Amino acid sequence: MQSTIFIINPQAKNGYCQKVWKKVEQVLQNEKISYSANFTEYSGHARKLARSYAEQAIGQRLCIIAVGGDGTLHEVVNGAAMYPNVTVGFIPGGSGNDFSRGFGIPKDPVAALFAILKGTDHEPVRTDVGIIRHTGENATYFINNMGAGFDAQISEKVNRSKIKGLLNRLSLGKFIYVLFLIKELFVYRCSALEIEIDGKKQSFDSAWFVTVSNQPFYGGGMKISPDANPFDGILNLTVVHNISKVRLLFVFTSVFKGKHVAFKEVAVLQGKTIRIRSSHPIPAHADGEPLGCTPLTVSVCRNAIPVILKKEEEVKEMNPK
């Protein structure tokens, strides 16, 4: 037997996730499916709930399904990552939903639920995750991506913004990243970066940001790392450096289709263990959630999390190299 727990963020997408849950809940009741539901009440609550349920279920199969945005899933992954008996599922109810893009989760919540119910009939797909270690802090996992620099500063500003709620109500949530990109473009101070990848050091004199990706998408649909594959045991890096503000805008206009990698100022790298140091502390994020500042170390955890989604081969076909 497998217990099923739903962890719902009622504030996701400015409260829209409550409507998502009502649709899902109606189907569960109609289908007479046994489940438990918990609503998050504060930042970090989903992580606490996931860990608590995982600890209680030692030796038993448990499926924890996050209903919300990428931040909600991020917390659930961090709560469940150390427990091999726990399988993770996701029903998109946020504004970004980059995990659903990269992993083939249907946009419609009812379709996503039926995909999960169907998926429980066979073995879940084990996906890679990244793990971040930085001084004085516990390790943090990410399933989509992490970054340091300009993109982390934008994520922090977006998460604090009241405008995000307004745009979400107008179904324009993803454009808030573009808005703050333009705003922060004129105040952000670049830094020198030293990036050590599997023991080999590379230096970048004037870097805007570095993103480490486990799958292609971030920032509400930007295809930041077209070749990233969450099943290959490798993390993909994108470093934007030595570029003017005007030219940087051209890079971002092309990132939604993954064409930015053709710019000479965009370095594309990959590795298993990455150490990031900067000339001055720069902000970092994990799956869009604030993480602190550099320096930090990032590593891949191969086949770390069992996730209910399409078969591994189908997800690879969605994101061909």
Structural key phrases:
alpha+beta
Number of strands: 17
Please give the count of helices: 10
Task: Look at the structure and give the mean pLDDT.
Answer: 89
Coarse structural class: alpha+beta
SSE string: EHEHEHEHHEEEHHHEEEEEHEEEEEH
Could you characterize the architecture of this molecule?
There is one protein chain. The chain is of the alpha+beta class and 321 residues long. The protein has 10 helices and 17 strands. It is 31% helix and 34% strand. The radius of gyration is 19 Å and the shape is globular.
Quick structural gist:
The chain is 31% helix and 34% strand. The protein has helices at residues 16-30, 45-56, 70-80, 98-103, 109-119, 150-160, 163-169, 175-185, 245-254, 312-318, and strands at residues 2-8, 36-39, 61-68, 86-92, 125-133, 140-142, 145-149, 191-197, 200-213, 217-218, 222-223, 235-241, 266-271, 273-278, 283-286, 289-293, 296-307. Strand 15 and strand 16 (289-293) form a beta hairpin.
Topology, pairings included?
Layout: E1 2-8, H1 16-30, E2 36-39, H2 45-56, E3 61-68, H3 70-80, E4 86-92, H4 98-103, H5 109-119, E5 125-133, E6 140-142, E7 145-149, H6 150-160, H7 163-169, H8 175-185, E8 191-197, E9 200-213, E10 217-218, E11 222-223, E12 235-241, H9 245-254, E13 266-271, E14 273-278, E15 283-286, E16 289-293, E17 296-307, H10 312-318
Helix pairs in contact: 2-3, 6-8
